[in-house]
């Protein structure tokens, strides 16, 4: 993959960037990305879902990123690659117009005298950097974010506005954390003394590995004694709850509205879909996929796809099946009685 940085590229340059092969005019100039249905002649699109294959004939895109097995369906220029989705991601990064979270160090930012600040650090308005914080080179922190005592944030990381990082949290290099996310709040640890809940001090921390991405409004609790650990290149969606002392393995993916109770150990390359609930003290091995709205109540020890969510159906069908389900017990008894007669 080549490294280039400008506002527009020829299709040949993009092919060199992603290791692809051009079909058609390699000199076409591309300046942004778009969907197949909305693209114009200066834009590039992609196809990964066969559901949209028919749009290849009608798209106005200047070029389309496709796999070898559908190149004959493209009427215009194409960029042939092994993985169109990955190639599109790399090309989209070239045209990313997301504004920076801040520029320079705002005069309203408050930085403790004991904090160590690297070069080219950016701090937005009302940022608070507490005692003994360490910020690596090129860290960017948006407005109203608080970084608690003794926290470490690795070089090239970006925290969007209104993030809260509690004391002692360690965040790796090139990590992105979106707004309203809280890292290192107390885990949900209590002891019950004759009906009265007693809080247990949460004395561990949170460690987040390099190149991880954390969405908005997500909470990652600090450990009770040992740390809560998020591995390298873990992607976590919006509104995810990760309980104290969880360990999330490298390159795993956790989708929105998932709740993971404390002391779970999630393996590497695990994909957890939206709305999943995982009981406490559960272990999930590497290379597992858990589909949406699944409830995980026991360890998963074999790679594969696991489900328990009920797909939507018409209310009429659902009511009928609910009645039938209530009759399973009596049906079982009748079958057992018949078996005894045989």
Can you describe this structure in just a few lines?
The chain is an alpha/beta fold and 342 residues long. The chain is built from four helices and 38 strands. It has two domains: 9-94, MurE/MurF, N-terminal domain (Udp-n-acetylmuramoylalanyl-d-glutamate--2,6- Diaminopimelate Ligase, Chain: A, domain 1); 110-306, UDP N-Acetylglucosamine Acyltransferase, domain 1 (3 Solenoid), CATH 2.160.10.10.
What does this structure look like?
The protein has 342 residues and is of the alpha/beta class. The chain folds into 2 domains: 9-94, 3-Layer(aba) Sandwich (Udp-n-acetylmuramoylalanyl-d-glutamate--2,6- Diaminopimelate Ligase, Chain: A, domain 1); 110-306, UDP N-Acetylglucosamine Acyltransferase, domain 1, CATH 2.160.10. It contains 4 helices and 38 strands. The strands form 6 sheets. Strands 8-11-14-17-20-25-28-31-34-37 form a 10-stranded parallel β-sheet, with no helix packed on it. Strands 10-13-16-19-24-27-30-33-36-38 form a 10-stranded parallel β-sheet, with no helix packed on it. β21 (190-193) and β22 (196-199) form a beta hairpin.
Write the layout of secondary structure elements.
Blueprint: E1 9-10, H1 11-18, E2 21-23, E3 29-30, E4 32-33, E5 43-46, E6 63-66, E7 77-80, H2 84-94, E8 110-111, E9 116-117, E10 122-123, E11 128-129, E12 134-135, E13 140-141, E14 146-147, E15 152-153, E16 158-159, E17 164-165, E18 170-171, E19 176-177, E20 182-185, E21 190-193, E22 196-199, E23 206-208, E24 213-214, E25 219-221, E26 228-230, E27 235-236, E28 241-242, E29 247-248, E30 253-254, E31 259-260, E32 265-266, E33 271-272, E34 277-278, E35 283-284, E36 288-290, E37 295-296, E38 304-306, H3 315-326, H4 328-341
Parallel strand pairs: 4-5, 5-6, 6-7, 8-11, 9-12, 10-13, 11-14, 12-15, 13-16, 14-17, 15-18, 16-19, 17-20, 18-23, 19-24, 20-25, 23-26, 24-27, 25-28, 26-29, 27-30, 28-31, 29-32, 30-33, 31-34, 32-35, 33-36, 34-37, 36-38
Antiparallel strand pairs: 1-3, 2-7, 21-22
């Amino acid at each position: 993959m080549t490294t280039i940085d400008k506002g527009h590229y020829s299709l040949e340059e993009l092919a060199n960037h992603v290791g692809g092969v051009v079909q058609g005019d390699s000199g076409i100039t591309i300046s942004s990305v778009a969907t197949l249905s909305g693209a114009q002649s200066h834009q590039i699109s992609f196809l990964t879902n066969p559901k949209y294959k028919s749009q290849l004939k009608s798209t106005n895109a200047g070029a389309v990123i496709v796999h070898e097995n559908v190149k004959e369906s493209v009427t215009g220029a194409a960029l042939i690659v092994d993985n169109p989705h990955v190639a599109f991601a790399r090309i989209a990064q070239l045209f990313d117009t997301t504004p920076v979270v801040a520029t320079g160090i705002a005069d309203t930012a408050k930085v403790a005298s004991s904090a160590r600040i690297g070069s080219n650090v950016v701090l937005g308005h009302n940022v608070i950097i507490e005692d003994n914080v360490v910020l690596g080179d090129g860290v960017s922190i948006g407005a109203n974010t608080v970084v608690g005592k003794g926290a470490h944030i690795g070089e090239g990381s970006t925290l969007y506005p209104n993030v809260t990082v509690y004391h002692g949290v360690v965040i790796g290099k090139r990590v992105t954390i979106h707004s309203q996310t809280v890292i290192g709040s107390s885990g949900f640890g209590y002891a019950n003394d004759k009906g009265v809940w007693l809080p247990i001090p949460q004395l561990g921390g949170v460690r987040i590995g390099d190149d991880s991405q954390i969405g908005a409004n997500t909470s990652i609790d600090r450990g009770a004694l040992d740390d809560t650990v998020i591995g390298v290149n873990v992607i976590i969606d919006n509104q995810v709850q990760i309980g104290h002392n969880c360990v999330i393995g490298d390159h795993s993916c956790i989708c929105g509205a998932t709740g993971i109770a404390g002391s779970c150990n999630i393996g590497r390359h695990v994909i957890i879909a939206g709305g999943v609930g995982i009981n406490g003290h559960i272990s999930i091995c590497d290379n597992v996929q858990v589909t949406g709205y699944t409830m995980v109540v026991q360890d998963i020890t074999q790679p594969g796809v696991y489900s328990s969510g009920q797909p939507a159906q018409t209310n009429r069908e659902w009511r009928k099946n609910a009645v039938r389900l209530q009759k399973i017990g009596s049906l079982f008894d009748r079958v057992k009685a018949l078996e005894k007669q045989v």
